[in-house]
Design goal:
Elements lengths: L4 E7 L9 E8 L2 E4 L2 E5 L9 E5 L3 E2 L7 E5 L9 E5 L4 E2 L5 E2 L1 E5 L11 E5 L5
Antiparallel strand pairs: 1-2, 2-3, 3-6, 4-5, 7-8, 9-10, 11-12
Pfam families: YmaF
Organism: Paenibacillus tianmuensis
InterPro entries: YmaF
Length: about 130
């Protein structure tokens, strides 16, 4: 089954050593897509915490959708962690828009290997 997708590719200035282009999807199966900002702090473990921020992956605008997310934490105590997961379903906001709940555990890292818990809500859709 083919699903029509529209979008565009932007050439970056080479700041990201992993890839030189960014793909922006603007519609999926005829429906506009959107993203959400997210940010927060991890739990305090092994004498420190980490901060994270990012944008969710695009998703179609429909009532029961979810978003994937990914971010690398701040560099604290000589290391970073990765967070990755899928949000919960859309939670309507009064008036207009919605947000999503997310939670999980970071990857294990550090001189004394450990992970951190994290949880929060995304911002409103963009």
């Amino acid at each position: 089954m083919d699903i029509p997708v529209t979008g565009f590719v932007v050439h970056s200035d080479g700041e990201d050593p992993r890839h030189a282009h960014r793909l922006y999807i603007t519609s999926w199966d005829g429906r506009p897509v959107h993203v959400h900002p997210f940010s927060g702090a991890t739990s305090y473990n092994d004498g420190h915490l980490h901060y994270y921020a990012g944008m969710t992956e695009p998703a179609p605008s429909n009532p029961r959708h979810v978003h994937g997310y990914y971010a690398v934490t701040s560099f604290n105590d000589g290391h970073t962690h990765t967070i990755r997961g899928v949000t919960g379903p859309a939670i309507p906001l009064p008036g207009r828009g919605h947000y999503h709940y997310f939670e999980g555990y970071t990857t294990v890292n550090g001189m004394r290997p450990h992970a951190h818990a994290y949880k929060g809500n995304t911002g409103n859709e963009v």
